[in-house]
Amino acid sequence: xxxxxxxxxxxxxxxxxxxxxxxxxxxxxxxxxxxxxxxxxxxxxxxxxxxxxxxxxxxxxxxxxxxxxxxxxxxxxxxxxxxxxxxxxxxxxxxxxxxxxxxxxxxxxxxxxxxxxxxxxxxxxxxxxxxxxxxxxxxxxxxxxxxxxxxxxxxxxxxxxxxxxxxxxxxxxxxxxxxxxxxxxxxxxxxxxxxxxxxxxxxxxxxxxxxxxxxxxxxxxxxxxxxxxxxxxxxxxxxxxxxxxxxxxxxxxxxxxxxxxxxxxxxxxxxxxxxxxxxxxxxxxxxxxxxxxxxxxxxxxx
Length: 302
Known about the structure:
This protein is α/β, with parallel strands linked by helices. It has one domain. It is 48% helix and 16% strand. It has helices at residues 2-18, 22-38, 44-54, 60-82, 89-95, 102-109, 124-135, 149-159, 173-181, 213-221, 255-275; strands at 96-98, 114-118, 139-143, 165-168, 185-189, 199-203, 206-210, 225-232, 238-244, 297-298. Helix 3 (44-54) crosses helix 4 (60-82). The protein starts with a helix and ends with a strand. The relative contact order is 0.16.
């Protein structure tokens, strides 16, 4: 009964939003931000704690402003994803503006597949949909299944709206390798906490358990890693910036190279979050685990 109620509520909100113009959906997201911030403060204390640890030089008023804007970004992303069935090619071209698509084009021409990575930053959902459609390169998207199967089916349908494939994390290894060997593109988010036994990479000065999967796939197949970010503009639409993570000096698939490439993509994301901290998902327990004596901590070169 609880699962059905969750689905009915989620699907009902989505259907309502799909009846509205996008500008109204974004205004409702601002209203929803105020409701969550003042009345339903989900993970508010965690968000503020993580922001204070990451930016100790900023005063509390600025920290709280960043936190509130982070909630607004999250709610806007959810509402926009719900509106996805209204998207068409003309809408994508208006909403998503790629600043440097040649980076992806050049990487794809090498014939080793592409690992397209990002974090929970800006509207990561529409970036995946829009970039794949505009570049004409369907993505195999690695996703975390939602606990409610009916809601998960609905969301996966939106993610596949323009031809992307979705593969659940945990059964994705074979799919990723096959896609890359067939010169395809795999898209994944790499900023959530890994398990406690992971390697730890410093993020905002604190060791954070980090998945090595993206670097492992890239180095095993010889595929480039392209990091992408969607920056919300004043008009509500997005500029997408992509950059390739340097790997020319990492010769071969070794444990040392995997850890160094992991460090590089974490550092690249950190730099972008520092520029626009309110676009990142601070509500996630990124520093959930503490390294023990047996864990590896990957440090920046001196």
